[in-house]
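Category: protein sequence paired with discrete backbone structure
Discipline: computational structural biology
Format: plain text, a pair of labelled lines
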Amino acid sequence: MSQRHSSWHLSSHSATRGPTTDLVKRGDYLVNGILTCGNCHTPKGPAGDIGDKAFSGGLSWDEPPFKVTAPNITPDKETGIGNYNDAELKEVLRKGTQWRASRDDHAKRILRNHERS
């Protein structure tokens, strides 16, 4: 199953047309397209992505010199990013500031490279 089918479909959350719809489509493109956020932030089982756990984080890598744990990036207000405002999310993704306990350099680097092209 492809990443696109096992992840959020952000575009389904908007019933209106206009700037909001365009932003949602852009978000869907970034999350499910070029950034493939679910590759790191969605737990995996023997058959691939665990669909009901999409973007809940927890995957860890210990590849010296880095030790990384993908954080929960769901809209959950207690365990995810539901309490982040737009400015905070922008800061995290563009500047690599700290998530609660880990750093997401990969997404930051991809976004920075995409903005240059």
